[in-house]
Amino acid sequence: MRKLRVAAIQLRSGIEPAANRAQALPFLREAATAGARFIATPENTLRLDRDRARMLAAVGPEEGDPELKAWGRVAQELGVWLLLGSGAIATGAGKVFNRSFVFNPDGKVAARYDKINLFDVTLGGGETYRESETVEGGGKAVLFEGPMSAKIGLTICYDIRFAPLYTALANAGAEIITAPAAFTVPTGQAHWETLLRARAIETGAFVIAPAQGGRHEDGRATWGHSTIIDPWGKVLAKLDHDEPGVIVADLDLDETVAARAKIPAWQGGREFSGP
Predict the structure, then answer these.
(1) Which of 11, 43, 97, 260 could be joined to 204 by an S-S link, Cβ 3.0–4.6 Å?
(2) Cα 8 to Cα 37, 121, 167, 186, distances in angstroms
(3) What is the pLDDT of residues 32-85, one digit of tens each?
(4) 95 in active site
(5) In which band, very low, low, confident or very high, does the pLDDT at 131 lie, cut at 50, 70 and 90?
(6) 157 is annotated as an active-site residue
(7) Is 151 among the catalytic positions?
């Protein structure tokens, strides 16, 4: 039996990275004290700022970023695997990558992932988002081996609407898939938990989804409701609100084998033509 205790941190990030880290630290320490060996934070943990000019002026390259070094020290201090859900990293061409970082217990970057599917939508009521105007999309799915030799796949927020990415991670052996997010309130109310459970069921994998929640410094509102789900689609832990907080769950990694043996749809169906 391979058991792994994990945690998801819910935040309300603002425009100052150091303040965001200070907000997260008590929850990170709480999770580590509770025995979590893998802890995940939301999308835009480093900075949540929809003012494009201000954000681009503040963001630099990954190399030498003092906040990334500070987050690595946090992982080392706590002795945990730490997923920094995402931060904006300058591309050098007038845009940023929306990039996840995984730190190992030595504080070193063990994996990084650039968000592939960008949030370009018109929700109505004056709510329009064009993430591609600021963010350069990634092009590579990422899987890494974490604590207990768990195979963990990385996604970010809007990626959750694209089942082929999750199927590719499952076919590569992912037992856990992370989905750090900053969901809008309308889409969160309508789709958040449904999508998370669907991706877990389809892939036969655990899904860890730490979220941003509430009204942010830049005026944006996000849904919250961070959730951890098992391979059968059962909610193991959940925050039923938008306030900052932490959830912890024990994952029996052998359950991925059992779920996939029962319903092997994650391998893909028959080829077909048409319509």
Answers:
(1) 260
(2) 11, 27, 23, 22
(3) 999 999 999 999 999 999 898 999 999 999 998 999 999 999 999 999 999 999
(4) no
(5) confident
(6) yes
(7) no
